[in-house]
Amino acid sequence: MHIHILGICGTFMGSLAVLAKELGHRVTGSDANVYPPMSTQLQAQGIELTQGYDASQLDPAPDLVVIGNALSRGNPAVEYVLNKGLPYVSGPQWLADHVLQGRWVLAVAGTHGKTTTSSMLAWVLEHAGMSPGFLIGGVPQNFSVSARLGGTPFFVVEADEYDSAFFDKRSKFVHYRPRTAILNNLEFDHADIFPDLAAIERQFHHLVRTIPSEGLIIHPTTEPALQRVIEMGCWTPVQTTGVGGQWQVKLLSADGSRFEVSFEGESHGVVEWELTGQHNVANALATLAAARHVGVVPSMGIAALSAFKSVKRRMEKVAEVQGVTIYDDFAHHPTAIATTLDGLRKRIGDAPLIAVIEPRSNSMKLGAHRDGLPESVRQADQVIWYAPPNLGWDLAATAAQCPVPAVVADSLEAIIARVKSQAKPGTQVVIMSNGGFGGLHGKLAEALR
């Protein structure tokens, strides 16, 4: 069957395309912006991509159109699908109907760390010989592909609370019906579709309602919003992680690169890995709990985590030029920015640290997170904020409140000039954005050469 995917370069929809292709379908797709790493992955899979949403791409008509949640009424391709009566479906619905039916689904939900934790969990199961299927909103370096069907009943899915499509305003994860669910954390985000935190909590409770009584829910003890979700009603056994929980850690290095894991008071071994930050330690604990639920003993999970390579664009070292190290990171929420910088600071000690941040997510553009931004960069020595032309609030006022030197740049050239003037051998530069940032990473590396 010929499936055409609208919005194919989004991390979720691109992964969906890979699965559809693996199921034997002919897959094509289009997007407003075709850029790596997803475009590269799709082209390598032999999936034909079209730039833009001209209706002509739907003639001759495909057998099914999968419509991404970035598309809305008024889009020429969407209007054509509706006017011609072409069969269409949301991405999460298609995934539920054609991939997840009859599988043991392990879902990873939460405001932060979904991609990294899903990648960890898929890798732990793989390492244990369980050959899981997975769909992850990023490219895990242990697999070099963001999705696959897998050879066993186990399927790991990154479970996003964002809405499913313009015609289905439920959170994506309501479609997945997991047996094992990680609820990693919960803060206000997605200000473009949720009015407040309570609205997101309600969607998380819709997820909780779908988890069987023979399943398992895993969540940290330190998240009041998740506690409220569970208190709305829970029919499933729960395991908790972190302070006072059944799963605990003892940090053996301040940066989180070594820690001992215990479950119900019994030590199971030490994780030593390349990752840093308390957030990743928390991700690891949840991963070990979920893996144990499907039969992976903690010591085996710990061995797997010690060989885990993280995800592309999650504190990924992309260049080292003239002694200056450049990292690419996806952080786009004050909490994620703060924990990422804190982990790196603990690893590098007193080395100069420059953060370059693009407020690109819908919540950022709406100014939903601006109050938390100044404090989030405390661990950097200086910050360069990028002001995109369509930002609807005063970024300069935010920069003025930062506890470290901060400037606002309105072009990539200005950012590069600033970094060049400030960086010396030993400087660490972290570029944070949830988009391609105009290829800044490569341009900066080239300029430093």
TrEMBL record:
Domain Mur ligase N-terminal catalytic: 2-99
Annotated Mur ligase C-terminal domain residues: 313-435
InterPro entries xref list: Mpl, Mur-like_cat_sf, Mur_ligase_C, Mur_ligase_C_dom_sf, Mur_ligase_cen, Mur_ligase_N, MurCDEF_pg_biosynth
Single GO MF annotation: UDP-N-acetylmuramate-L-alanyl-gamma-D-glutamyl-meso-2,6-diaminoheptanedioate ligase activity
UniProt xrefs under Pfam families: Mur_ligase, Mur_ligase_C, Mur_ligase_M
Required co-factors: Mg(2+)
Keyword list, A-Z: ATP-binding, Cell cycle, Cell division, Cell shape, Cell wall biogenesis/degradation, Ligase, Magnesium, Nucleotide-binding, Peptidoglycan synthesis
A GO biological process held by the record: regulation of cell shape
NCBIfam families the record matches: mpl (TIGR01081)
Protein known as: UDP-N-acetylmuramate--L-alanyl-gamma-D-glutamyl-meso-2,6-diaminoheptandioate ligase
Organism the protein comes from: Pseudomonas laurentiana
